[in-house]
């Protein structure tokens, strides 16, 4: 039986995770904590894997505390930068289980989004232009989405590897309409009542366009990925920090 604790358990995602863990074979819910609760209650004596879905401003602190307590963590919260990831690696090295500790972070647990991200990285080297539009519910606190940042980084890496230069753009005046430039890729964020989580990756060459689109219509779409990640982290996932559900899929 994999004992799973949830941090951020009262949130939109955390409450779905509690339900998914309760319904998953071979898993049992250990602790369900939210803001104001003491994370020190989570220890290897009561928990095998923690699932963390909170807010970008507190997630790093939570992960560092959980690593110091020696429990493995699956993180869905966004807001991760290279600097924050480096802090997690250092914490693992300095923690109680440097050789066996596992931390897994996924910008997106939905198979549609993971595949869109993967296909975008594959397509990137064939196109002169690339831009991303991410569309979310208006209660989201961060923009652009963690998924869009990850997609942009994948496209940028593929363009660099192929020797492509900057995307063409002769804009001279921009009050913000061209979006945020992430790793050289323009990212546009829409916040609209009625939406959940959506992303479009647009590629262009002279006379042609490719659009890759992923839609998560409800939060249930993230749960198979969360449960898979918990099983992998409790099982044969490598020790250390792993980023991206693609690592657990046969892509
Ligand atoms: N990786 C993925 O597939 C997905 C990631 N997300 C990300 O997950 C995060 C959470 O999203 P939502 O659930 O929609 O947000 P939410 O605002 O509904 O939930 C956040 C929860 O965290 C709690 N919280 C705040 N500070 C805390 C602390 N210090 N300790 C424990 N709990 C604390 C809040 O009280 C709240 O219940 C966001 O970063 C979002 O972008 C959302 C959907 C899918
Ligand atoms: O806040 C959300 O809702 C989502 N956040 C993640 C992100 O920022 O990429 C994943 C998904 O898009 C839903």
From TrEMBL:
Known EC number: 1.17.1.8
Keyword Zinc found: no
Pathway: Amino-acid biosynthesis; L-lysine biosynthesis via DAP pathway; (S)-tetrahydrodipicolinate from L-aspartate: step 4/4
Tree of life domain: Bacteria
Keywords (A to Z) from UniProt: Amino-acid biosynthesis, Cytoplasm, Diaminopimelate biosynthesis, Lysine biosynthesis, NAD, NADP, Oxidoreductase
Keyword Oxidoreductase: yes
Active site: 136 (proton donor/acceptor), 140 (proton donor)
Any Pfam family matching the protein: DapB_N
Domain Dihydrodipicolinate reductase C-terminal: from-to ranges: 114-248
GO cellular component: cytosol
NCBIfam families to which the protein is assigned, alphabetical: dapB (TIGR00036)
Full protein name: 4-hydroxy-tetrahydrodipicolinate reductase
Organism of origin: Bifidobacterium platyrrhinorum
